[in-house]
Amino acid sequence: MKNGVPMPRLSPLILILLGSAAQAAQEPVPLYREIKDWVVACDNLRSCQAISAAAFGFSPLRLVVSRDAGPKAQPRVRLTYAGQAGHFPLSTDDRPLPDALMDALQREAGEDTVTLSGEGDTARALLAEWRNGETLRLDVTTGEEAEVSLAGLSAALLLMDSVQGRLDTRGALYRPGERDDREVPEAPPLPLLRPFPGVVPLADDERQRIAQAVLASTRSEWQEADTDGREPEAQAHALNTREALVLIQTSCAAYNCNFALYRVAREAPYPQQPLRIEPLPLGGEGLGGWVEYDEGTGELGYFMKGRGLGDCGDAGSWLFDGERFQLQSAQMMQRCAGSTPDDWPELWRTARP
């Protein structure tokens, strides 16, 4: 009753439909979130990763849980130990991992790494063992501790299920229920980029003329950034028959450089404008650290370290279609926790034409 007026009753069918609509609502992607000692990232196709990444300290042991979107996608787990090779037992809160699960793990040994992985039912059983624990340990024979904090894993798995529409389904990672897995939404289609039409590279003399002209005419726009005493460097590349791209490396610190990029007319006096590109997801800035353009493929890319170790930062690339730069890929790892750039999670994926 509201203001003395009886409220209409909702029929059971409407209640079911409302519940289904609420269940179908999914978190927006791309997504990047830090939960205690874990990082969760989901790309534009709703493929998700949960990565062990304790905020303080370093462990040579890393656990990654991943799953693609869609009703048939299976979970995967990967444990990587960067240290001595060998066969070592696993334990959760000092409880040895059951032999059946240890035997089910696939093992790959490198010169100084060990990788243990499992998929499908094996991954589910392992996550059921780990999700309510505190510490996963690989019992190596050296004095170095090889541990993964499990603080936040349950919430990370729950978030992955939510993003992919798996809450309360039989295949959910954290809160399985009675919903049929066929109710899980299909993965979005992979975006198809427009092709790079190709272009004749600039001749050396034209390349030098354009680069030097833009370097001189734009100096006042980025001169303040040039604090390391080095002379700025400019490169010019053909975009099409009318325009060129000029990259100016204005200054460098220990492991990152600053860049100014311009889209320039190829005829004197070479009028220019700042380069416009499709934005990165989640408000990323990009085009710093190290920036390159490949005239042969039409790819513009950057790689930015968060610190010198290269265990955090972001990277991305764009494909030129003859007129516009289309976002092609994006990776980001904001937490500096010992991961390599190869393990930075993807936030954006596309299909090349």
Quick structural summary:
Residues 1-24 form the signal peptide. The protein is of the alpha+beta class.
Q: What does it look like?
A:
The strands form four sheets. The protein has a seven-stranded antiparallel β-sheet with strand order 1-2-3-4-5-9-8, covered by helices on one side. Strands 16-17-18-19-20 form a five-stranded antiparallel β-sheet, with no helix packed on it. The model is unreliable at 1-24 (pLDDT under 50). A hairpin with a 6-residue loop joins strand 14 and strand 15 (272-274). The protein has two domains: 27-183, Immunoglobulin-like (Sandwich); 204-348, no CATH class. The protein has helices at residues 12-24, 99-104, 121-130, 153-163, 204-222, and strands spanning 31-35, 38-42, 48-52, 61-67, 76-82, 90-92, 95-96, 106-109, 113-119, 135-138, 147-149, 233-238, 243-252, 257-265, 272-274, 290-294, 299-305, 313-320, 325-333, 346-348. The protein is elongated. The protein contains five helices and 20 strands. It has 353 residues and is an alpha+beta fold. The longest helix has 19 residues, at 204-222.
As for the number of domains, it is: 2
Q: What is the CATH class name of the largest domain?
A: Mainly Beta
Mean pLDDT: 89
Strand arrangement within the widest β-sheet reads: 1-2-3-4-5-9-8
Please provide the ordered H/E string of secondary-structure elements.
HEEEEEEEHEEHEEHHEEEEEEEEE
